[in-house]
Amino acid sequence: MADAATRSFMPQDGRAFIVRAYEAVGMPRDDAASVADLMLQADLRGTDTHGIARLPIYVQRLKTGAINKTPNIRIVEEAPATALIDGDNGMGHLVMKRAAELAVEKARVNGIGWVGARASNHAGAAAPYAMIPLAHDMIGLYLAVAEVNHMAPTGGIEALLGTNPVAFAIPTQDEPPIVHDIATTVASNGRVGAVTESGGAFPEGWMIDREGNPVTDPKRTQGGTLLPIGGYKGYGLSLVFALMGGALNGTPVGRDAGSPAGPPRQGPSNTGQAIMALDIARFGPPERFKRYVDQVARELRQSQPFPGGEAVRYPGLRGHAKTVAAQAEGIELRPVTLAALEKLAGGLGIEGLKLR
Description:
Blueprint: E1 7-9, H1 11-24, H2 29-44, H3 55-64, E2 74-78, E3 82-86, H4 92-110, E4 112-120, H5 127-130, E5 138-144, E6 166-170, E7 178-182, H6 189-198, E8 207-208, E9 225-226, H7 232-245, E10 271-279, H8 286-301, H9 317-329, E11 331-333, H10 335-348
Parallel strand pairs: 3-4
Antiparallel strand pairs: 1-11, 2-3, 4-10, 5-6, 5-10, 6-7, 8-9
Helix pairs in contact: 1-2
């Protein structure tokens, strides 16, 4: 529960505010509503660095023309089970919503659908897209290439790869679904930004400098790189996701991608992403599989924890619990996010976010 100094907002009020902001800069209402819904899923699940906190950045890029307000999202390559779509530099949320829907359509006919995207943009959290197939008794997989490189290959110091996230979503019968949404770096760039904004310090293990020393001071990140999860294993994952979600779709990776040492990007980012939908009915009755996933999920959460520790969780359980709580009690706002949203509302001349 929030303390007296913390402000929060109800999901419906957040949605209305996001739609107002996007409409104020020329985005069609239906598109604004679609983006708002996907952004708020991140906030509901507790990923507050990838939801409404990103609104001022997105609005600024829309205002300057760096993101296309009215994109023509189209299929440029297609086969029975695969497709490549061109996002026409539209909001990544709109591009990946279309990609996920297309992947589901193809999986319904062919058992599997894989859709890659080019000319897209940052799409927020990964989980909302991987979760779209769940409603169709399908497994979802989403991966993306980060817009800017922040990770060096293991043994190196030059940032040649991004935080390149991945999300898996597996349906259940009665338990909350299995949802695994991670960056391939120990900390996502959004989490790094949140700590920087708070004036705190990074834990050791997040970042190193050019000599390989830990960086814990947010003011000393110049020339540093984020560390991969699991050492060389995370580096390998980041690489293959870059190739499968970026190079395969014709989007830049490696030195062709953005560098944190370079000037801020002003034009299109040409972000690469991909999504897969897998129809579990092609392997037997969906209910049989989903009940078995339930069994495994219960075994995990009911398993013996460390002495004195919290109950064991499985991926997606905490996000589900946070969603249920936030729908009833509201979504908490970090002070820096609240200040940025108030400034945004004033600049756009729109009604501000209704707070609790």
